[in-house]
Amino acid sequence: MKSIVENFDLFAPKLVDKEEYYCSGHRACQGCGEALAIRLMAKALGKDTVVTNATGCMEVTATPYPTTAWKLPWVHVAFPNSAAVGAGVEAALKSLRRKGKIADRDVKVVSIGGDGGSFDIGFQAISGAMERGHNMIYIVYDNEAYMNTGIQRSGATPYGASTTTRPAGKQSVGNTTWKKNMAEIMVAHKVPYVATACHSYPFDFMDKVKKAKKVNGPAFIHCLAVCPTGWRCPSDACIKMGRLAVETGVFPLYEVENGKYKMTIEMPKKLRPIEDYLKPQGRFRHLTPDQIQIFKGMAMLEYNKVLERIKHSKSWSDMTS
User: Fold this and answer.
1) 165 is in which domain, residue-wise?
2) Dihedral through CA 103, CA 77, CA 66, CA 35, nearest 10?
3) Separation between Cα atoms, residue 70 and residue 21, nearest integer Å
4) Of 268, 221, 230, which Cα lies nearest the Cα of 248?
5) Residue 3 domain-assigned?
6) Rounded CA gap, 225 and 147, in Å?
7) How many CB atoms lie within 10 A of CB 12?
8) What is the mean pLDDT of residues 129-149?
9) Measuring CA to CA, which of 31, 71, 99, 247 is 20 to 30 A from 298?
10) From residue 186, how far is each of 109, 177, 315 by CA, in Å?
11) 149: CATH
């Protein structure tokens, strides 16, 4: 009888596509969570995919002329318009289907961007594409600042984080606001499928990408992507930091299908102390006990909102029947 290890290759292909659509050799930093998430996304999507990529870390590191890490059709677009270009590609594919040129292929458009190109600069394009109902996926890779251009504060930067444009000092706590809640904004757009994800939970993330691919309409995924450079933590702490964000309740993993909320990673009744998440990161090293309490209050307010929505939400079909 063969061992489980010897039999692994028999069932491994059913779990994860062995093909690499985002190749090694790119120039992302060591321990880059975003590069890992992109790799997982590409595996989940498969070859019949067109990617539009806003300017950012994954554009700069993956496509230095004349090379590319992408094996998928890929378009580099400007900072603000990844979703707009994705919507145009989706319309073109629809036209090709009507003409019978790709009738036998289910090609999906996926627009991606960082938090700067999604929460801030590209927000209008995302809102328009989701509101119009384009059959596409938008995935934001959130490393909580403009990491590509020097660690400037973005709409995704959490309270207390020290950035180059909101540095901590004797008269400054660092960033003074909480993260913009993009998942909830997309739910308000009546997007059929909205989810939060993190590369530290690869199967959860890939399952959500696969589910989004099946949606006949817009889908949105907010993926937390650890950036050791900007977070001022060791490069080998990438996976650990993503898990701590979830285990402390700072970034719960859930999905919203047609208005119905569901937690996809079961949370313990007693969350890990938020200090476990903050202390390993240099960007939070300056926080006083009182400031940590403010961070906790903001994080728990958002976390408890999710729990309440899970408890009381109904799908749109239930509400209209």
Assistant:
1) 17-320
2) -90
3) 6
4) 268
5) no
6) 11
7) 10
8) 97
9) 31
10) 18, 20, 15
11) 3.40.50.970
Helix pair angle (202-214, 33-45), 10° resolution: 40
> How many other CB atoms are found less than 10 A from the CB of residue 270?
6
pLDDT score of 41 more than 60: yes
Q: How many other β-carbons are positioned within 10 Å of the β-carbon of residue 17? A: 15
- The residue type of 254 is Y
Task: Let me know: does 158 contact 166? Beta carbons within 8 Å.
Answer: no
Q: pLDDT tens digits, residue range 142-191?
A: 999 999 999 999 999 999 999 999 999 999 999 999 999 999 999 999 99
Pairing of strands 254-257, 193-198: antiparallel
Length of the chain: 321
- Residue 160 belongs to a domain: yes
Side-by-side strand order, sheet with 74-77: 74-77, 49-54, 108-114, 136-142, 219-224, 193-198, 254-257, 260-263
Question: Are the C-beta atoms of residues 160 and 281 closer than 8 Å to each other?
Answer: no
Q: How many domains are contained in the chain?
A: 1
Tell me if 240 is assigned to some domain.
yes
What are the tokens at 80? 């603000």
Q: What is the torsional sign of CA 122, 125, 128, 133? A: negative
Instruction: Report the predicted TM-score, pTM, of the whole model to 2 decimal places.
Output: 0.94
